[in-house]
Amino acid sequence: MGCVFCRISARAESTFFHWFVLELAGTGEMTERLLRAQGFCPKHTRQLIPNASPGLLSAVYLPLLQSAAQDLRAIATGGRNGSSSSAWERCPACESVVTSLRYWSGLVEGCFQNEPRRWLERFADQQALCVYHYALVYSAVAPATQEHLDGLLLKGLQEPTAWPLQPAIDDFCVPTHLPDHRFDRAEAGRRWGDAWEELQARLNADTCPVCQWLAESAHDYLAWLHRAVADQPPSQWLQASQLCWSHVHAWLKGISAEVAWRWRTELASWWLVQYQAAKRRQPGRTIHGRDASPGGGRLRAALGVDESTCALCHHLATRLAEGLQLLASALPDPMIWPVYSHSKGLCLRHLRMLLPRLSPADRTQLLAVHQRRVEVIAWTLERLLRLDSWNRRHEPITYEKDGWQLALRTYQGELWAFEPYPRFPQ
Ligand SMILES: [Zn+2]
Ligand SMILES: [Zn+2]
Ligand SMILES: [Zn+2]
Ligand SMILES: [Zn+2]
Question: Which ligand is nearest to the CA of 42?
Fold first, then answer.
């Protein structure tokens, strides 16, 4: 029971990490893919950690850091531009999920082509398609199957349970509740006199300040939405509750059953109203007085469940721009710079976004600090890998065993923004 594609995604992820640990990690091809993706995405970094040993994590991230050091050197000498974020590819685990969904979409299409009535009944009985996977599967199937999927989803959204809004969420690697703040912001806020002090407090915390702002903003947004759905009329929160798959995942993991029910039923009726309006604007063909295409792409447009329409993704883009703007102005200041150079600093992703906003002199100063930092982390990982050898068995392994945390934080600061440090299972 529940969305079959949610379960396919979860299985594709666990199969990927099974083979990653057994065979793929450290191969030339996988290293190239991770370089092009700048490491794993936050979700899959979280999933990688309990699957891998410190040695494996060091071996995976060492070539990435070596390449990053070279990259920073090239930017410093004017050979490359700093803002290459748009060129990053999908993380290899995300890619394996997409490949798997494409493959299974093909099979579903075969089923619907041969015995549409039987498969529609089975899908409806099992409530086997959520709106989030509908959008993915829709783009991979032929128009005839798209029509079947539209009909199935419309029927589901009209049912009292609004089952297409109940994705079968895997429990792995997402927080089981809205996470607590790493430091008490209410308490710290009383001490902040102004933006300078707030920034200094961020820099003294353990991870990238931009990652902290973004993680806290996402938390604040979802916590506000939870209160709004519980207490306020739908007109106050419906549009704001239109989330992409990754944010709906975080949202559903943190909310109460009553709020989930209210959100689901109100959002489903709102979508149906939007769909009807779109249908009136663009009436479809009719055959024998019946609408030939229940959706004709209109349902998909009315649902709008990707990053481009996610209210939280939009909010975070604004928060990111605000954070980068503050850093660009404040970082070169003689009061802030010493704090920054002693802090963990920005993650590589946010560093690259900040660079184009700085003057050449400030950019050079920042790049020098980060280049050295990345080189020392790479050195630590390399040393751990050498200490693993029989010839070095007399040398104790101390700080080297935690080098992977510094390496991963360099790529995904947000994992350290909220939660306690990820630990291996005991
Ligand atoms: Zn699903
Ligand atoms: Zn991923
Ligand atoms: Zn960051
Ligand atoms: Zn989103």
Answer: 2
